[in-house]
Specification:
By secondary structure, this protein is mostly helical. Helices cover 78% and strands 0% of the residues.
Length: 257
């Protein structure tokens, strides 16, 4: 029963049905606490924290993820630890705690490098780590610091793509990470190519939130980057599409302040 609750919450989460994911994760947490299954408590708290992240409730998300982290240290399941650790890094960055975010991302990356991923459980954690490094690099100074952070991303991306090929719901977000990496290097046409790939993947796998992120990134890139006129998308079309999808999901775009 606990496993079924977890799977149902996970499916709802990836389909951006956050109220359903929250309800199932809350039920899972109560059952796991009552019956003494801390491993399921970790997943329940992590899922609740992830839902709150989607809604932009950073402080509440941090509390749930911190609680999940404390329990995860008692468990040998590295997948759960990666899931929680990557999300903690990302929420710390959302709260403006750049140093803490990097420390958490480094710890999570160490776990990732020591673990062969096969199931979907660690996807969000992996994405949290890579995205944290990308956004730290985006605002990094001096240039040497930026290059150092991007080098970490460059080393992590092949593993992320391999993981996403095993778990296809991750292909859209992996493409988004690759696009952001290309953008930060000034390779704007390549970034646009990856963003279009991300959008197609999100649409084909029925992932509304990832579709919104792809539309948003395309709109922002088209508004600011020096793209050839024949390749430049219409920014407003994509920004409006992102706004509609986010409103439908009851979510916010996760970008550091």
């Amino acid at each position: 029963y606990l496993f079924c609750l977890l799977q149902r919450a996970t499916v709802a989460y990836w389909q951006a049905e956050y109220a359903a994911a929250e309800a199932d994760a809350t039920a899972l947490l109560g059952e796991a606490q009552r019956d003494g299954f801390p491993q399921y408590e970790v997943w329940a708290l992590g899922t609740l924290g992830s839902v709150l992240l989607r809604r932009g409730a950073w402080a509440q998300a941090r509390r749930q993820l911190d609680a999940a982290h404390a329990l995860a240290q008692l468990d040998q399941a590295k997948t759960a630890r990666i899931f929680v650790a990557g999300q903690r890094a990302w929420v710390a960055l959302q709260q403006g705690e750049r140093s803490t975010a990097q420390q958490l991302a480094e710890a999570a990356l160490h776990e990732i490098r020591a673990t062969a991923q096969t199931g979907h459980g660690a996807l969000e954690g992996y994405f949290g780590v890579v995205t944290t490094y990308l956004e730290l690099a985006a605002d990094a100074a001096p240039a040497a610091r930026r290059r150092e952070l991007l080098q970490v991303v460059q080393q992590a991306l092949p593993g992320l793509h391999r993981y996403a090929r095993l778990v296809p719901i991750g292909t859209a977000r992996a493409a988004l990470c690759q696009a952001r990496f290309a953008e930060l290097q000034g390779h704007w046409p390549l970034a646009l190519k990856w963003l279009r790939r991300a959008l197609r993947a999100a649409q084909s796998h029925g992932l509304p939130y990832d579709q919104a992120l792809a539309h948003l990134a395309i709109g922002r890139l088209a508004s600011t980057a020096a793209l050839p006129a024949r390749e430049r998308p219409e920014p407003r079309l994509h920004l409006d599409a992102a706004e509609r999808l986010l409103a439908r999901c009851g979510a916010v775009a996760e970008r550091p302040r």
